[in-house]
Amino acid sequence: MKNKIFFLLSTILVSTIATAQFRIGVKAGANIVKINAISFQDQFSYGYHAGAFLDVDLIPKKLSLQPEVLLSQYTTTVSNDYTTVYQNVISSSQLKVKLNYLTFPVLLNYKFIGPLHLQAGPQYGILSDQTKTLLQNGQNAFKKGEFSMVGGAEIRLTKIYLTGRYIVGLSNINDIDNKDKWKSQLIQISMGITL
Q1: 153, 119 in Cβ contact below 8 A?
Q2: Which of the 8 DSSP states describes residue 40?
Q3: What angle do CA 121, 76, 92 make, to 5 degrees?
Q4: Pair 27, 192: CB distance under 8 Å
Q5: Domain residue limits at 72
Q6: What CATH number does residue 125 fall under?
Q7: pTM
Q8: Per-residue pLDDT tens for 61-115?
Q9: In degrees rounded to 5, what are phi and psi of residue 180?
Q10: Residue 131 falls within a domain, yes or no?
Q11: Half-sphere exposure of residue 20, counting CA atoms within 13 Å on the CB side?
């Protein structure tokens, strides 16, 4: 039954893309990230993202589907609780955590007014690389995947897309134990250009 539903949805998506008007583009920008957890400092840190997008009209000049593929870097700092306990054991560079995700947002764009479009949809991220820190104790500290929800707005000026998004992680990305839930919050600001 699941295979039939998947096949039907895939067929609809492929036929929609084949007959619809679409735009391909590239984009890049800044990530402002915070991981909500006792283990990490309660502050936003900076990272980046870059990748490509496809914008497919569902209802011309009103509604479109925008799947993307982005390389997205998250950074955070280990909480001060760890620095006081391990003050002579770890260096300041070991307190920084960098996570590189390959993210796949799939967004619905609704043309609100003029060049302003509203966006919403799910995102899945695959952890491709992470720094090695004290938290890991010889194992990976972060789960390999993260499911998130995305909401935001985009201003479209001919071929240039200016985007602001808020992304909230729904998955617990802590892969050490279940005592402390780690969830990400992300503000993403980017500029894209259609080719």
Answers
A1: yes
A2: B
A3: 170
A4: yes
A5: 21-194
A6: 2.40.160.20
A7: 0.75
A8: 899 999 999 999 887 666 555 444 444 444 444 466 778 889 999 999 999 999 9
A9: -120, 120
A10: yes
A11: 21
38 assigned to some structural domain: yes
The C-alpha atoms of residue 55 and residue 61 are separated, in whole angstroms, by: 12
Query: Two tokens at 45?
Result: 């840190």
What is the H or E stretch that residue 114 is in? none
Question: Which residue type occupies 169?
Answer: G
- Residue corresponding to tokens 């799910």: 122
Per the CB < 8 A criterion, the answer to whether 101 and 128 are in contact is yes
* 45 Cβ contact list (under 8 Å, min separation 6): 32, 33, 34, 74, 75, 76, 77
Each residue's pLDDT tens digit, 25-40? 999 999 998 876 555 5
Tokens of 188: 């993403």
Burial class (CB in 10 A: 0-12, 13-18, 19+), 153: middle
**Residues counted in the chain:** 195
- Please check whether residue 2 lies inside any domain of the structure: no
- Is residue 105 within 8 A of residue 126, CB to CB? The reply is no
Give me the number of domains the chain comprises. 1
DSSP code, position 142: B
